[in-house]
Design goal:
- By secondary structure, this protein is of the alpha+beta class.
- It folds into 3 domains: 101 residues, no CATH class; 115 residues, no CATH class; 169 residues, no CATH class.
- 45% of the residues lie in helices and 13% in strands.
- It contains 16 helices and 12 strands.
- A hairpin with a 5-residue loop joins strand 6 and strand 7.
- The chain is elongated, with a radius of gyration of 30 Å.
- It holds the Pfam family GerA.
- This is Spore germination protein.
- Keywords: Membrane, Transmembrane, Transmembrane helix.
- Belongs to the GerABKA family.
Length: 479
Amino acid sequence: MKPSSSIEATEYYFKQLFADQGDFQSKQLIIGGKEYILFYFDTLIDSSLVQEFILSPLLLRPQDAVRDVVSILDYTETDQLNEAGEAMIFGKVVLIRNGESTLYVLGVDLKKERSINIPTKERVLRGSNEAFIENIDTNINLMRKLINSTDFIVKTYTLGRLSQTKVAVMYIKSIANATIIEELDRRLQSIDIDYVESPGFVDELIREKKFSMFPQLLVTERPDRARAYLMEGKVVIGSAGSPDTIIIPVSFWSFFHSSDDYQISWPLGSVFRILRICCFFIAIGLPAFYVAVNDFNPQLLPINFVNTLQSSVKHVAFPPIAEALSMMIMLEILREATIRLASPIGQTIGVVGGIVIGTVVVQSNLVSNTMVIITALTGLASFIMPSYEMSSAVRLLSYPALLLASWLGLLGLAFFFMMICIHLCQMHTMGFPYFTPPFSFGDAKDTLFRAPIWSLRKRPAGTAPSNRTRLSHPRSWKR
């Protein structure tokens, strides 16, 4: 709808449109014999910016054109009333002058955001101490400071019919695969939803395997980690209102990588990475293995160990499957309690609750000593993974593994891991394989272990980057 040259008609339109809005304001001014009206939401604008960059210049030069007087960068003109109304919701001021049909949209929105702080969910021993915040523009600023190149591309989308959430897609043009960018653009453009709350919404709306428990997008709050993946040809997605960004496409092995791996010597980084992969199998299969060897296959263990195991469960009232399930559920309850409560109370509940419950259930002959040790080791193995999403998936997968082991013994556990492997091999992210077994040295040297930096001459082939060459002559100083 186009505005009328009558200032009263335009004022009537906006007052009718925002009649129920308690913070909507209109201010009428007479400057140099000309009538002006400002429309705005007083909770969204910075009044000092209005005074300094709009009103003061108009008072000094009332006869000049508005575009020549207003000294503000975020300046646009429109002849559509609905566009001006939507702009006000984003913190803009709409200025009209009597006798003109042009609407001047001026950006003076109030900036309220927390300061850039240290990462709280991805703490590392070495590396950057900056973390993303809820303001998407600040997050883009952090990334542009880390990547000073014209090849660094930022595309913005507006998702959510009601929320109008700003989503930013970032990638390196000379490295990223164009097919991935096109496919991601197609999926984002097809999203039709009322509101987008966080990158988790985008994750579920663009992922391929809707019912898989394995995470298909990597979540990070660290700008330096996001930059590292951008340099491998991946894409980073951030949204307004969330300090988390998501990285696509990623492989199964990406969830075992930590920023610390590249800040320490490569032998240590390799050992820690292999340890995390081993803990993946421990967290899923250790309780199931305990039940299997206790009920089905005790002959697989040394006789001394079998005697110790049998003596520990001799007076226990429940079968091994009930032991394992009760202790694993108790571990989940303690974990949720420590997360949801305030930090000092949560830490106390975690320590005291673990000690008290562990001691009482053993003394009451409800659970064996061995089961308490296995539960503790299983929990620690799941927490060692750098990705919270993968850690949660591992804990959930341990339950079906436990049930199959209680039914078929070690055969059931082997069948479960075979089904997991088949499922992973069938998965794709953005059209690229999610799980590629690292059978060759070239595939394994930055997946199963961390090879020296000077040997990582090629970028990972999993996402088919347009430029695979990372290093040409890394040690040219040596002759």
